[in-house]
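Predict the assembly for these two chains.
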Amino acid sequence: MTTQTWEPAKPLEELFRLNAKLTAGLENLLDTDDIGLEPTPKELVYEEDRVKVFRYVPQVAKPHGVPILISYALVNKQYMLDLQADRSMIERMVASGLDVYIIDWGYPAGVDKFLTLEDYVDGYLNNIVDFIRTTHNLDKINLLGVCQGATMAACYTSMYQEKVNSFIGFVMPFDFSTDDGLLFKWSRHMDIDAMVDAHNNLYPGDSLNDAFNMLKPLELSLDKYVYFIDKMDNKDALLDFLRMEAWIYDSPDQAGPMLKRFIKDFYQENRFAEGTLQIGGRPADPKNITCPVLLVLGLKDHLVPPASTRPFIDAVSSSDKTLKEYPVGHIGVFVSSRVAGDTGPLIHDWVTSH
Amino acid sequence: MSQEITNPWGAWMDMSKSAWDFWTKSVQKATTPPAERPTPATPWSDMYDQYAKMMSWNPFFQVPQPKPEPTLVQNLYKQWEDGARNFMALIPQPTAKDAYERFFSSYQMFNRLQDFWKDYLAKVPTDAGAWQELWSQQAEQYQRIVAPMLQPFAGNFLPENLKALYDGSAKGWDSIQSLITNLFEPVVAASPELQELLAKAVQGDKDAYLDFMKRAADTYREVSSRVLSMPAMGSNQRLVEKTQKLVDTYLDYTVKAAGYSTLFTESASDAMQKLADHLMNLQQTGEVPQTFLEFYKVWSDTNEQVFLDLFNTDAFEIVMNDTIAAGSKLKTLYDDYLQDAMQTLPFPNRREMDAVEEEVYKLRNKVKDLEKQLKAAGTGASRTTRKSA
């Protein structure tokens, strides 16, 4: 049989190569003052407690008449949609002539640890929609939700259908009864009361990141750093990496009552999909949604598996509904070079035709 | 890793036995007498000169004297890493520094793993009877190497101060540990079986340790827990009852954390077995990884799959959630205990601040409701700040 011996020349060659990349990478780092997050110009137009709403500065003389409001998830920051200029979904939307607003849910602290699902959906989201409706003198606006922010926006739409012109959901968890996806499996018997109480009602964003990293333990916690050095001599690639790192670990703490409710009513009891959810004493039932619906998912999404998103299409009463699937993961829907050029025009065409 | 992990405490020995079979059949035959080592295409002296020249740009790197193979490459890797770390200490950007730290941690692990495999092959016995001993020695060594990597996974979800506890640091818990020891002492003294398990556990027998903890906990609940559950008397009765409850919760957490840790340990060994299998197959086809990145990919892919298999089991979900809940309850009780102790100090504690913050939260919502009513009546402006859109 063959016995292979270790050839020292090869690791030495690799060492030389990596060292050259490290040297160039350090020079790149020393030359970098700003990694360039959120390049698309915007202005603050609304504030309520720690929640802020920004309007992106229109890039056309006369933007589309019905604005679009983006509701992002509470667990990370909304600027993932505008991470860098060449892959910014926001930038493409604005450049195409859409009038885009986005919610920054802020960083809950102190008083905010008592915030509930009602506060977020029936309070902040409703107030923001009313503000934009009033500003533009419109009865209805377009609502776009991302991940958990899409679930909240869908709940809102089911309660305030008269204020929503069309609903767009990106990578939205809806049917929590699916066995696909470790988060869904792990959450089913989670004692969320004990977890939140142990953190004095404000669950750390870092602990959520630990959970997300466990979904692909080696790939997300080690591999990317090992392979990082092999591309850090390329400044563009290095900045891409740093921007994504900055975003991934920019994770707000979670208000206890809201997190408890989301785990119990959604992950464990699947109340929204089953039409039994109540928010502020009012039913939030997807059957109440009658506006046009566009649903976008990633076929390789390990956080929100397609099996959780797809059933929404059949759950709503809308007659005008479209499901768009891309062969990418949860974040790839927004930043993948294969998809980034497609989503902006997709949203533009959808909004302008509805 | 199968879907039926119902007895994690017993799985370790099963795994060892199957590993023994595996090694006797595959590794032994793969280790032939030393083959002729190929001569490097480039002479060592030239390679070293090239390396020293490459490093000379940076005063933080100190180029060592070359040593004879096979330690030369690892020495150079280590020296390169040390130099790069020194340099990175000057970089003020936290994101980049974190990425570098993780990279170098991986690199250290690679060096240790490389040492491990070389040591392993050097020790391959000709006597088949020595395999079991070698396996258990090497498995233990392997776990020591990968333990720093596994700890972040194993400690996930736990409150921050319990992660530290999980990782072996028990600072601040000495008095509680001591109390538990006192509670266990009479139980162990009355049970020869527990004494035997404890003796094995002290010698590093994991199964014995887990079995001891479980039985001791069961016995504790039947005996001491009932005693501690009695209503206390006297002026400090509330404090005494809380202390007893805290001890009870800590014991529960300790037992569950041990089970959780065992699943990870078991998977690490499972990964080692699969990795060895894979490397032996690669050796037979002349495709053994030669460099850090090549080896790392094989190692990482193998471990990723093993741990994902584990994470998908029902047993893991149950053990993980039980451990997290037990740890969380312990922290809640401990925080409460601390606040009781701090009650007399001349500053507000967390409970008191919570009460104030909750009141402010309610008032804030009340103001918003009133503003909406005023607005609906057409008499007032919104409290929320509006800026021109």
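Chain A has a mean pLDDT of 92. Chain A touches chain B through 85 residues (CB under 8 Å).
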